Amino acid sequence: MNRGGLIVNEIGLEPLMDLLLRRLIAPLAAHLYFAEPFAASLDHHHSFVVAYRHRGDECGGDRGLDMHHDASEATLNVCLGREGFTGGGLRFCGRFGGEAHRRNVAVADHAVGRATLHLGRQRHGADDLTSGERLNLIVWARSSAFRAAAAYGYIAPDGYPKEPEQARPDLECLSLANDDDYHEQRARQAPSGEG
């Protein structure tokens, strides 16, 4: 969870986010994720802005964000600014519930005005900023039909059933907040003389 942020639906921007969902996010998600059960039914959202600061602890913000998956079917992440920050890439690992959910997949570099759309169950985190500060608009796009079907047991919720891991997780994909075996995995992978 982020320490510096603002829920934009609460400050009068919900109609704008509704439009963004209808005109951009839902059509893109339907095209990119056509095989997903929610692909054509994204109908509501939770939207917020988060702030990252190189001196996060001193300024009441975060330098980065631990690995996690979102409470959404699809997520739009838009870098709003500020110019001049360094670091803070958006690191992607496998999909929650998959055998490779803690394996490194890619890092997307943030740039002002650049957006990334990904599945909510795609494990990801924000690497620490090395200088400056950055603001991001996050839109968690959700499907009422998908969530109702999962709640009543008609389909499996995202990430279930969980597949057993086939390989040792990548250190970059471990999560202190979300992995019960975090310390065990770090110790297992520490070079001799550490840990």
- Strand percentage lies at 25-35%
The 3D shape can be described as globular
Number of helices: 4
Instruction: Please identify the structural class as seen in this structure.
Output: alpha+beta
Most strands sheet: 5 strands, antiparallel
Strand order across the biggest sheet? Answer: 1-2-11-4-8
Order of helices and strands: EHEHEEEEEEEEEHH
Q: What is the radius of gyration? A: 17 Å
Topology, pairings included?
Elements (H helix, E strand, L loop, with lengths): L4 E3 L6 H19 L11 E10 L2 H4 L5 E4 L5 E8 L4 E2 L2 E6 L8 E5 L6 E5 L2 E5 L2 E3 L1 E10 L1 H8 L30 H8 L6
Antiparallel strand pairs: 1-2, 2-11, 3-9, 4-8, 4-11, 5-10, 6-7, 6-9
Concise structural overview:
The chain contains four helices and eleven strands.
Keyword list:
single chain, 195 residues, alpha+beta, five-stranded antiparallel sheet, four-stranded antiparallel sheet, 4 helices, 11 strands
Description:
The structure is a single chain. The protein is of the alpha+beta class and 195 residues long. The strands form three sheets. A five-stranded antiparallel beta sheet has the order 1-2-11-4-8. It has a four-stranded antiparallel beta sheet with strand order 3-9-6-7, with no helix packed on it. A two-stranded antiparallel ribbon has the order 5-10. Strand 6 and strand 7 form a beta hairpin. The radius of gyration is 17 Å and the shape is globular. The two termini are 27 Å apart. The mean pLDDT is 87.
